[in-house]
Amino acid sequence: MRKVVIDLKYEPINSKFPHFLHGADYNPEQWLDYPDVLKEDMRLMKLAKCNVMTVGVFSWASLEPEEGRFSFEWLDRVMDNLAANGAYAVLATPSGARPAWLSAKYPEVLRTDSKRVKAIHGGRHNHCFTSPIYREKTRLINEKLAERYKDHPALLVWHISNEYGGECHCELCQEAFREWLKTKYDNDLDKLNHAWWTRFWSHTYTDWSQIESPSEIGEKRIHGLNLDWKRFVTDQTIDFYRNEIEPIRRITPKVPVTTNFMRLYNGLDYWKFAPEVDVIAWDSYPAWHSGNTDAATGCEVSFSHDLFRSLKGGKPFILMESTPSTQNWQTVCKQKRPGMHFLSSIHAIAHGSDTVQYFQWRKSRGSYEKFHGAVVDHCGHENTRVFRDVAELGSALEKLDDIIGTSVKPEVALIFDWENRWAIQDVKGMHNERKDYEATCIKHYEAFWKKGVPVDIINMDCDFSGYRLLVAPMLYMLKSGVAERIEGFVRNGGTFITTYYTGMVDENDLCFLGGFPGKELRKVTGIWSEEFDTLFDNDINYIVLANGNELGLNKEYEVKYMCEYIHAETAKVLATYKDDYYAGKPALTVNNYGKGEAYYIAFRNNKDFEIDFYTSLINNKKLKRAIDAELPEVVTAQLRTDGKTDFVFLLNFSPETKTVIINEKTVFEDMLTAENVEKSICMQGYGVKILKRKLI
């Protein structure tokens, strides 16, 4: 008997349309001189089974062609046509690319780079987030949009700006940064100097005016400064966003608000941004069919999907942008092979998306994105492979309403923390060219993905108590209270796994004194780290597992790039190094602590170890899998549930046919064919199965 979980059903993104959203970025302003094209769009949208269009993303010059002269009539017609055809709008604010007249009249809105060079007009997001004038102008046009369309039947979601990113180093931003620092450090320069350890190289500040943002022509080696600047950029971007949404929240309080995030974008801490949006949205552009296997790419994208679901505690997200065919900006712009569009779209849904949306609806006739993938090609008709792929997916989505709002409650969490990543990027003294924090986190995630074990991707500030297994690769930084909460997690019965380079610095990037790992982690892990050795690319060491170890592992594993020289204090040694001066010293340990245990992995390897190690833990801990089945190497299983019905997604990330053997006695229903499935499933290359399982 399967345990019935607590209700995991969320409300639809907007209750006006409780179905999967399927659509694209629509740029009708590019076609205002082509009325036949705009008319044809409506016909094609119906054929493609598209029910939503994102409009207005880069439309400022068409909405306000001159300062103070607004032109909404064309947008009125678009919104009316969408409504008349049973479709909806994700209505965007236009701040991502401003009109030329604004830059010409108000040069303060232009960004200054880290070398203190002022930009000229052009590009996207070439604007200062601090500029009072830019804030005033964006707020005004957003207010106009909200007032005009507040009661429009097509309005479904607000899309704020586009892919926020970048930073500005102008004097306005320098002053704002100094004020931010004064607030953080209680207007006390001594506190700042201590936190940044400024006596190093005689960098002590004696006046706030002396502080400048990091620059190639100035200071970039005070790690505390670099870290605080990145924090400030996040906070200032959020503050700009809040200014953008104020009239929208005030005028249309019941319409959900979002903005589109970008994979693991380094420039903004999405954990800080997440509370500011009603629903998470992100833009996914994987390089399918590249040098990586499609399964490896699928694992990387799954990691991102799980992150964006986790940002709101499991609430379904919006796949705001993807491509039905190719991108135009990757080094090799390869077309999706037959089946990959359907697979990659359902892939997002399997991890928590309640939408599939594309960039773009119709290919631009000119400029930078004229050859970026789109539902409608330059030929202008429906008789293309890509269009048929989109229509096929649209028909399938109409069968999946039961999945809307469902989520998953994983037993496993993996910590991926922006501030920790920023600190690791700055640190010197490890393998400076192979820090690979993101890749390492994904490597520790991969075994769970292969075995169909759901995972939350969290940061170190999240609540750990709801999980059985907590994985924290390279947890270099320990913010205040984090080590204590990990200690409580393990003491109360949790299993904690961490690696080399853990527990080294505090939130100011100051090293802990008294030995590593610092704070409570030393007693939790039961080890002391004495030295850290890095290896050249052609250097290889090995670890040797102890006979009869509890993991059941019995082979040697290759060690590459990083070796930590540790001492087992209270921990049990499960593996030792084979060679070099630390031969025979601990490489893998486990420490029983309270009701739980903590594993310490002191080395980096070629992922074989992680696959075997975590597979052993999955089996020993009997962690919940999406389905009890024998999954081929390139097939993953993912789960969504409402607590009464499970929805299991089987995804084949290879062009070859694969067979999945189900070990459960449950009879599943194939949601796309309505057929019963019991023992064996034949999956075509890039094939998908969506199975419904009633809980007893």
Q: How does this structure look, described?
A:
The chain has 696 residues and is of the alpha/beta class. Among the domains are: 51-166 and 231-279, TIM Barrel (Alpha-Beta Barrel); 412-621, Class I glutamine amidotransferase (GATase) domain (Rossmann fold), CATH 3.40.50.880; 629-694, Golgi alpha-mannosidase II (Immunoglobulin-like). It has 17 helices and 28 strands. 29% of the residues lie in helices and 19% in strands. Strands 11-10-12-13-20-19-18-15-16 form a nine-stranded mixed sheet, sandwiched between helices. Helix 5 (132-149) runs parallel beside helix 8, helix 6 crosses helix 8 (223-251) and helix 14 (437-451) packs across helix 17. The longest helix is centred in the middle third of the chain and has 29 residues, at 223-251.
